[in-house]
Amino acid sequence: MNQIRGAQSISFEVSPYIISSGSVAGSKEAEGPLGKLFDMTNQDDLFGAKTWEEAESNMQKEACVLALGKAHVKPQEVRFLFGGDLLRQGVATSMGVESLQIPLFGLYGACSTSGEALALSAMSVAAGYGERMLAVTSSHFGSAEKEFRFPLGYASQRPLSAHWTVTGSGAFLVGAEKSHVRISGVTVGKIVDYGLKDSQNMGACMAPAAMDTIVQNLEDFGRSVEDYDRIITGDLGYVGQDILFDLMQGKGYDIRIKHMDCGMVIFDQKSQDTHAGGSGCGCAAVTLSSYILPKIRKGEWKRVLFVPTGALLSTVSFNEGASIPGIAHGIVLEHVN
Fold first, then answer.
1. Angle made by CA atoms 270, 272, 36, in degrees to the nearest 5
2. Which H/E stretch holds residue 41?
3. Which InterPro entries match (predicted)?
4. By the 8 A CB rule, do 66 and 172 touch?
5. What is d(CA 198, CA 194) in angstroms, rounded to the nearest whole number?
6. Residue 119 shares a structural domain with residue 188
7. Where on the phi/psi map is residue 275: left (φ > 0), alpha (ψ -120 to 50), or beta?
8. Which of 175, 204, 232 is the last residue of a domain?
């Protein structure tokens, strides 16, 4: 049976499942609306380490151990690991998962990395390359500020359009073993660049990519907005959401009732001073693990389109005045009785 759907999508003939997941988050996230839902939180955002980067690696390891432990699976029983982060050369991932000794594919999709990792894991299981794959990603407020903006000690003032990078890591065990959540299809995103250059307004930079992937998913699968219980973006935030709604309406779709954004639910905008909302690889990952998957498992949501979004910039490209393109990957998640 042909599994190719439209221009950018795959519909799995034999669907892989999300067997288990693990979520680790920092102190600010623990104080937010989802705080009690995370598997592990720590009031010390260094997580016992000496640097922000080591802390992020520790979070990744803990998230992987949690996901494996819930499924009673040993690291050597996992065929491949797909993981990535926001740091140069993916050091948070390579140092974080080293002790697990699982064959590794290092990824970079900015804040869309959880979607990229899940898509590749699902495709690998469906193709018969292994019974189990592990997808993991992370971000850390301290390491991201040092990498992309200013060290925390600089005390720079953030504009209202800026996001707050989530300190968190989410890991997902994907396999052929049946569970209550299956990945029935994926829509691989394209790079979309509207020429925006403001790194302090990533919602605007990523919204066009989110629109492009959502529209492509609906077209490729021949679906309407009503065919999904939720269409969930990664971290567009309050600014990006408004832009996404306008762009979608320009294409003839109204997703306002169905839409949810991870960056808008992970923090309390009024009490936590995160401006436009949360962002970072960990934002979509920990929200998926702690909040979205339980609702799908229980059958509260039958079908969800999960669309993590990423702004593809580096310190070099930004300092050279380049625009900030975006990318978004769509993962179709369905409830299984």
1. 110
2. strand 40-41
3. SpoVAD (IPR010894), SpoVAD_sf (IPR038369), Thiolase-like (IPR016039)
4. no
5. 12
6. no
7. left
8. 175
Bridge partners (DSSP) of residue 175 are: 17, 132
Instruction: Rounding to the nearest 10 degrees, give the CA dihedral for residues 40, 107, 303, 295.
Output: 0
Tokens for 244, please give them. 């996404």
Pairing of strands 168-175, 303-307: unpaired
Residues 77 and 188 in one domain: no
Judgement on whether residues 72 and 22 belong to the same structural domain of the protein = yes
DSSP secondary structure letter of residue 97: S
Domain extent for 218 = 181-335
> What are the residues whose beta carbons fall under 8 Å from the beta carbon of 91, sequence distance 6 or more?
53, 57, 85
Rounded to an integer, what is the distance from CA 275 to the centroid of its chain?
20
Question: Alpha-carbon distance 180 to 200, whole Å?
Answer: 39
How far is CA 286 from each of CA 139, 234, 258, 280, 290, rounded to the nearest angstrom?
Answer: 10, 10, 20, 11, 6
Interatomic CA distance for residues 108 and 310, integer angstroms: 10
Q: How far apart are CA 161 and CA 236, in angstroms?
A: 10
* Cross-strand pairs, 333: 183, 304
pLDDT tens by residue, 236-288: 999 999 999 999 999 999 999 999 999 999 999 888 888 778 889 999 999 99
The reported pTM is 0.94
SS3 at position 257: coil
